[in-house]
Design a protein that fits this description.
4-stranded antiparallel sheet, 18 helices, rod-shaped, 5-stranded antiparallel sheet
């Protein structure tokens, strides 16, 4: 309303011979209104254009309420004085629908002023509806005297108590077209209505900054930031970021009363001090963990050296054991070779079981090699076992030509191997005959099979 504020460009004319003002909105070609005084009902009528002989008045004269010389200042001051201060205070921020709001407040009487005092945004919504020709001033006045939810239903075809609560909580700053569009978008978003249903009054341009964190709205410093029309988006974002940081640090520290501590922060300075203090504790704990980690790594390195030394010791011991076993095998091979040379000179010695006419022991190296060639087997490789006394080889002539190995252990003799020529399996009669021969000279260890 240019008569109250100079935020919107309008031209003011004084109608000669009357106490009325002519207001031309937004330049040539736009509606021109004639305003009578508040006491006369503040009638607004479209004049169709500025009348001839009207004198243009600088709007700043009225907004500052200066009394300049001449009739111009007196007429404007007279018109301004006719409007109650309480009404001027309500509609001063309106940059959209000021004239319509003045008309509604004038004709609505005490009910309209009471509504403007409690929820000024409802008066503004009615004024914008009148401006958009959705309703008339008379209908707006009737709605002021009725239920408040009916106002929201009139402006927005579908509305519930959630819509009314949201409208009651948001605080426009300039009451501009941009803020009206923002409010329309919020009323159509169910998520916003749910997140802000327990919210304290919040400045409309800052709704988006706290919409995703409804649980932080109960913190006093954020409440002050979002409910102050002079509060900046930067302060709200800063407070929200610090609250989220405190919640994270408190959760990491295992604190259960983080939100209670945050609610005790009345100002942004107290919240900043709390955040810095908890950051210091967190960094101290982090540094201690880093120091402990370094100690663990150092201990691990020392332990690794111990492990490495133990591995080297075990590897050395294993090498020594392998060398000892190799030396043992070498000594054993030397002994066998020595015995083999002696056996080739003096023979294999007495057999464990004396032979007979059909089972003849092989007592020397030459006969052993000859037996292998005749029977086409590997009996010559048994020479070491024969020399060491573990076994003895016989030639079997009955019932069929075979080669026999007799194994002796602790004085007990048994059949080691019994093969026909070409390592074939001998007939059962041969094995039975050999078995009877062994049994006649001692206790056998193996069965006939």
């Amino acid at each position: 309303m240019v008569l109250i504020s100079n935020k919107v460009t309008k031209k003011i004319f004084i109608e000669h011979g009357t106490d009325a003002l002519i207001v031309e909105s937004y330049g040539p070609g736009c509606p021109v209104y004639r305003l009578d005084s508040w006491d006369n009902g503040l009638s607004l009528s479209d004049t169709g254009g500025p009348q001839g002989g009207l004198k243009t008045v600088d709007m700043t004269i009225f907004s500052s309420k200066r009394k300049d010389s001449g009739d111009t200042g007196n007429v404007i001051d007279s018109f301004a004085a006719s409007i109650p201060d309480e009404v001027i205070k309500v509609i001063s921020p309106f940059s959209l629908g000021q004239l319509q709001a003045l008309q509604i407040l004038c004709q609505g009487g005490a009910a309209a002023i009471e509504l403007a005092r409690e929820i000024p945004i409802l008066i503004w919504l009615l004024a914008t509806a009148v401006l958009a020709n959705i309703i008339t001033v008379r209908q707006a006045v009737d709605l002021v005297c009725g239920k408040r939810i009916e106002i929201v239903k009139t402006v927005y075809s579908e509305s519930t108590k959630k819509h009314l609560k949201l409208v009651s909580r948001v605080l426009p700053i300039k009451y501009s077209v941009k803020e009206l569009r923002t409010l329309n978008g919020l009323l159509r978003d169910d998520r916003v209505q749910d997140n802000l249903r327990h919210c304290s009054p919040i400045v409309l341009p800052l709704v988006e900054e706290v919409m995703d964190t409804p649980d932080l709205q109960a913190i006093p410093c954020i409440q002050r930031a979002i409910s102050n029309e002079n509060g900046s988006r930067y302060k709200v974002l800063t407070a929200r970021t610090m609250c989220e940081t405190c919640l994270r640090l408190g959760s990491e520290a295992g604190l259960s009363n983080v939100r209670h501590v945050l609610r005790n922060c009345k100002t942004l300075g107290e919240l900043t001090a709390l955040t810095d203090r908890w950051h210091g504790r967190h960094n101290k704990k982090l540094n201690e963990e880093i120091a402990n980690l370094k100690k663990v790594r150092e201990a691990a390195a020392e332990f690794g050296l111990v492990i490495q030394a133990e591995k080297q010791r075990r590897a050395q011991l294993q090498r020594e054991q392998q060398l000892a076993r190799a030396n043992q095998r070498l000594e054993r091979d030397k002994r066998r070779a020595t015995k083999r040379r002696e056996a080739r000179k003096i023979g294999f010695g007495q057999p464990p079981i004396p032979g007979n006419e059909f089972i003849v022991p092989i007592t020397n190296h030459e006969d052993l090699v000859r037996e292998g060639n005749v029977m086409n087997n590997c009996v010559a490789s048994y020479e070491d076992d024969i020399v060491l006394g573990g076994s003895y080889i016989y030639k079997v002539y009955y019932p069929e030509r075979c080669t026999l190995e007799v194994v002796s252990k602790k004085g007990v003799h048994s059949i080691g191997e019994l093969k026909a020529k070409n390592n074939d399996r001998p007939p059962k009669g041969v094995r039975q005959y050999v078995w009877q021969w062994i049994q006649s000279h001692g206790n056998p260890r193996s069965d006939i099979d």
